[in-house]
Design goal:
Blueprint lengths: L9 H4 L4 H13 L2 H8 L3 H15 L4 E4 L2 E4 L1 H26 L5 E7 L1 H18 L3 E7 L14 E4 L8 E14 L2 H6 L6 H5 L3 E4 L13 H7 L15 E3 L2 H9 L4 E5 H9 L11 E13 L5 H14 L6
Parallel strand pairs: 3-4, 3-5, 7-8, 7-9
Antiparallel strand pairs: 1-2, 5-10, 6-9, 6-10
Helix pairs in contact: 2-3, 2-4, 2-5, 3-4, 6-11
Length: about 325
């Protein structure tokens, strides 16, 4: 009796012959079976046979003859758009693999979406200009413990002090959290320069949902409680609090004058330096019991490149040394 080691793959079984799809894409691209045959170095009869096979598989006519050329039918146009894009992606991936220079170091970095968007995007141009031989592969996640299969980062930046075996841990900074808003919002709402006025304004709140990798969570109710202010004492006429678990969205809303957000210093300091955000008051909360860390994988194939990235990130955090 035949032992079955895997269930039938329904997706692959529904796929037409790639040879037939290649013939179809060439015929559609050149609007000619003859030119498609020349481009693929096969006979015109082979092209016709492959396209006929594909039409039978799909149960639809893909071409109409127009004089000496062929023209896609509506069904053919739909299939061509998807097939051509897939072939372009496959060809580009193959080119990257074939032509990848051996002297390039491909380094995988894992961090949160917020750190990627608000810190890396601001600092990467400098690093890339000074390290042209290092190719970075940045992967974002909120779950640093249970990573997807195949994700084996060289560097992890997170609040997790143990991301797995084989990593050396370097502390970066404590969480320093304070209110931020746009200069225009502050000008329109000068009352937020006081704690009570800030409590009663349009608050943009980071919710904890989907953030299991964060050891503690500070939202507006927690931050105000540190200042001995009760968020439940907001007047009924106050604007409703907006909640989202996407910190990038929260900061974008603050940048577009929609309210006031809590700013994590390592993420918003660049926006403050550029004048895009301001601090309406100077009170802040510093969480001394937790840290952000950089974890660097030891004994990797990219050890020298990892060291350079590690030293670069640590140098950027040196002013916030713990």
């Amino acid at each position: 009796m035949l032992n079955r080691h895997a269930d039938p793959d329904t997706l692959l079984m529904r796929m037409p012959s790639l040879r037939a799809v290649k013939a179809f894409v060439a015929a559609a691209k050149y609007a000619s079976f003859t030119r498609a045959a020349e481009a693929l170095c096969v006979s015109q009869a082979a092209i016709s046979r492959q396209i006929r096979e594909l039409e039978e598989f799909l149960g639809a006519q893909l071409f109409e003859r127009v004089g000496r050329t062929v023209q896609l039918t509506p069904a053919g146009a739909i299939f061509f758009e998807a097939a051509q894009l897939s072939f372009v992606n496959i060809a580009q991936a193959a080119d990257r693999i074939r032509s990848a220079p051996t002297q390039k170091h491909v380094l995988t970095i894992c961090c949160s979406p917020a750190f990627s968007a608000l810190w890396f995007s601001d600092h990467l141009p400098e690093f890339r200009a000074n390290n042209p031989d290092i190719e970075l592969n940045l992967i974002t996640t909120q779950n640093f413990v249970n990573r997807e299969p195949g994700v084996d980062p060289d560097i992890v930046i997170s609040k997790i002090s143990n991301v797995g075996e084989g990593y050396k841990i370097y502390p970066l900074c404590h969480d320093v959290i304070y209110p931020v808003c746009s200069p225009a919002y502050l000008a329109a709402h000068p009352e937020i320069a006081s704690l009570e006025g800030l409590r009663d304004c349009a608050l943009l709140d980071l919710s904890p949902y989907g953030r299991a990798g964060v050891a503690e969570h500070v939202d507006w109710s927690v931050w105000l409680a540190f200042q001995n202010v009760d968020i439940d004492e907001r007047p009924a006429a106050s604007p409703p609090v907006f909640h989202a678990n996407d910190y990038n969205l929260i900061i974008n809303m603050a940048l577009t004058h929609q309210g006031i957000a809590l700013g994590w210093n390592q993420l918003v300091s660049g926006l403050l330096e550029k004048g895009l955000l301001v601090r309406p008051l100077q009170q802040q909360v510093t969480l001394r019991n937790s840290l952000h860390y950089l974890a660097c994988r030891e004994n990797s194939n990219c050890e020298e490149a990892s060291r350079r990235v590690r030293d670069w990130v640590l140098s950027k955090f040196s002013r916030w040394c713990v």
